[in-house]
Design brief:
2 domains; alpha/beta; N-(1-d-carboxylethyl)-l-norvaline Dehydrogenase, domain 2; 9 strands; 13 helices; Rossmann fold; nine-stranded mixed sheet
Amino acid sequence: MMNVGWIGTGKLGLPMAARIAASGTGVRAFVRSPERLEALRARHVVCVTFDEMAAQNVVFSSLPDDAALRQVADELIPVLRRGGVLVETSTVSPAVSAEIGKELAAHGIAYLRAPVSGNPIAAEAGKLTAMVSGSEEAFEAIRLLMASYSQAQFWLGEGEQARYAKLAVNLMLAVSAGMLGEALALARRGNVALADMLDLIAASALGSPMVVGKVGFLKAADYTPTFSGRQMAKDLDLILSAANATGVAAPLAAFMRTQFAAICARGEIDQDFIAVATVAQRLAGLGEER
């Protein structure tokens, strides 16, 4: 039977770990913040020391950025079990991920890059989408664990393919938010009510799950974050860096980065990323409509 270690129990990490625990697999997590202990215990995730967590034969990590992953990896790799698997679910750069992959290989540890698409609501429901690259054998061995929190798991290759796939998905997410904002500005300037246009878009061929899921929040001007503008800005920086490194022109990514800079300047960067849809409307001289 697999034993799972977990590090990184934030908005996504905690529900993902809890779904694995609920499936009947024991999850042993390490947390640095004492205030997180009760939240984990309530979800049947056992809190243990760092070394106990790292001793499990499969360890998952869910971390905010490159710097956090680099710091954790420096502490984690020397104590991970040889022959074990590290499943890294964060959105990080392919460059840092590749560095860590080399270090893990040198220690005899399989490495799965396994970022997910979806928000904490999807994580709670087990409806994330997992993009995976690394050892196909390791992927097949732990796929059922991933299925606890994801509705689909895509193995994409032996290297950093999952990192690029996640950045590509988030590029589409950012551009879709900006495109939605411009569409709403144009429609409102043509005297179409905001709520009517949102309902129309949601019912059309353009009504993606993201758009449909944000309609109610946009109608209410409710930007309570599930995925914040700050997080999206960080991901756009990763996207632009990866595009530059691989020789890909990414003018839409660059434009959307300026849009997130605009909401940052207004003190709104910690609101939900969909708040960027208001930028085009404000530039058109349109205020909030409810």
